[in-house]
UniProtKB/TrEMBL annotation:
<dbReference type="InterPro" id="IPR003786">
    <property type="entry name" value="FdhD"/>
</dbReference>
<feature type="active site" description="Cysteine persulfide intermediate">
    <location>
        <position position="202"/>
    </location>
</feature>
<keyword id="KW-0501">Molybdenum cofactor biosynthesis</keyword>
<comment type="similarity">
    <text>Belongs to the FdhD family.</text>
</comment>
<protein>
    <recommendedName>
        <fullName>Sulfur carrier protein FdhD</fullName>
    </recommendedName>
</protein>
<dbReference type="GO" id="GO:0005737">
    <property type="term" value="C:cytoplasm"/>
</dbReference>
<keyword id="KW-0175">Coiled coil</keyword>
<dbReference type="GO" id="GO:0006777">
    <property type="term" value="P:Mo-molybdopterin cofactor biosynthetic process"/>
</dbReference>
<keyword id="KW-0963">Cytoplasm</keyword>
<feature type="coiled-coil region">
    <location>
        <begin position="145"/>
        <end position="172"/>
    </location>
</feature>
<feature type="binding site">
    <location>
        <begin position="347"/>
        <end position="352"/>
    </location>
    <ligand>
        <name>Mo-bis(molybdopterin guanine dinucleotide)</name>
    </ligand>
</feature>
<dbReference type="Pfam" id="PF02634">
    <property type="entry name" value="FdhD-NarQ"/>
</dbReference>
<comment type="function">
    <text>Required for formate dehydrogenase (FDH) activity. Acts as a sulfur carrier protein that transfers sulfur from IscS to the molybdenum cofactor prior to its insertion into FDH.</text>
</comment>
<dbReference type="InterPro" id="IPR016193">
    <property type="entry name" value="Cytidine_deaminase-like"/>
</dbReference>
<dbReference type="GO" id="GO:0016783">
    <property type="term" value="F:sulfurtransferase activity"/>
</dbReference>
<dbReference type="GO" id="GO:0097163">
    <property type="term" value="F:sulfur carrier activity"/>
</dbReference>
């Protein structure tokens, strides 16, 4: 593996977190909302592009400009639209192509670690021995990934097949996350290996078998007990949750530009940590990966989405005491949360919140 790429990727993760922390501290000193230009500049401080622009046409009615016949006219504005980047992230574990996730291309180490933890392939951060992130940028860098399929072709068809594959892949942003896990984890991978082509943060894409999709999480049951202590976790108050949501709304840089990403956020030592992604499952995996890598405990996670069973399962595995959503939970999510001691709340909006379990 290339050391320079590892350093580059780790610096990328650290820099993103620094950007978020600095922004929150500055935002606490002023009540002004950030201008879009400032937000765009902040998003683009990442080493990888999170937003791209595309020329678009906005068609709309303007009630102030109706003609004398009261016939509404369609107005057209041509303007650049800010679009969230959605990249294919290939997860390679000990040389095994394990999964492909569609995700926002930042904080990829945390995404990979959180994803593997949610898959049950790792239990502790120290089981990850090394990691490397590579962005595929030209034809030469694509070739090793297509070589295996190309070898299956006859010599006459090999060149044509490879060229077609490369042309197809070049329509996408592609990142390779190579992970080296210890031998015990490698045995788990061999027992559970699957080829998964996930849609955007699809928590159960590619899973076969009900037992794998709906696992027994009894070993993770919390009885609503906080990580690292024997004290019952405190129900987060409405005031604390509203303050947290206010910070999340102000700090979601990519979402402010695009309206196309979710976020998972938590408070740690009175500081907001936020992880954005085009997929809500990916956002939570990034937070869990950060939690494992930094060896910190969290009391509450706020999701900007609805609360599905997949998010509840990930939170239970991560021993997160409280999961709060801006939208509603599903009935299955509530039942599973109650069974395993996860506090669950939803509809955090308009000066209110609804508690479903853990109270």
């Amino acid at each position: 593996m290339q050391a320079s790429l590892s350093q580059y990727s780790k610096w990328e993760v650290d820099r993103k977190m620094i950007t978020i922390e600095t922004y929150v501290k500055e935002n606490e000193r002023t009540s002004e909302q950030p201008h879009e230009s400032n937000v765009f500049e902040s998003v683009n401080t990442s080493m990888t592009p999170l937003v791209r622009t595309h020329l678009s046409e906005k068609h709309y009615y303007s009630s102030a400009n109706n003609n004398d016949d009261n016939i509404a006219q369609v107005h057209i504005d041509r303007q650049p639209a800010s679009l969230a980047v959605e990249a294919a992230v290939a997860i390679i574990i000990n040389g095994i192509h394990y999964a492909v996730l569609m995700a926002s291309p930042h904080q990829l180490e945390y995404l990979a670690v959180g994803f593997l933890f949610s898959e049950g392939l790792i239990q502790h951060s120290h089981e990850l021995l090394d990691w490397d992130v590579t962005q595929l940028t030209d034809t030469a860098s694509y070739q090793p990934l297509t070589q295996e399929s190309a070898d299956l072709e006859s010599e006459d068809a090999e060149a044509e097949s490879l060229e077609q594959t490369l042309q197809q892949l070049q329509d996408y942003d592609i990142y390779i996350v190579e992970l080296v896990l210890n031998q015990r984890c490698h045995q788990r991978i061999q027992a559970q290996k699957r080829q998964l082509a996930g849609r955007t943060g699809c928590g159960m894409c590619g899973i076969t078998g009900l037992a794998q999709a709906l696992p027994d999480l009894s070993s993770y049951a919390q009885d609503n007990v906080s990580n690292g202590s024997n004290k019952k976790s405190t129900t987060p108050s409405l005031d604390d949750l509203l303050k947290m949501r206010q910070q999340v709304d102000a700090t979601q840089h990519t979402h402010q530009l695009t309206g196309a990403v979710h976020a998972a956020a938590t408070m740690h030592q009175q500081q907001l940590y936020l992880f954005e992604d085009v997929g809500r499952h990916n956002a939570l995996d990034k937070l869990i990966g950060w939690q494992l890598r930094q060896k910190v405990d969290v009391d509450c996670v706020l999701m900007t989405s609805r609360l599905s069973i997949e998010l509840v399962q990930k939170s239970i595995r991560g021993r997160i005491p409280w999961l709060v959503g801006m939208s509603a939970p599903t009935s299955t999510a509530v039942r599973v949360a109650e069974r395993y001691g996860l506090g669950l709340a939803g509809f955090l909006r308009n000066d209110r919140v609804t508690y479903y379990s853990g109270i």
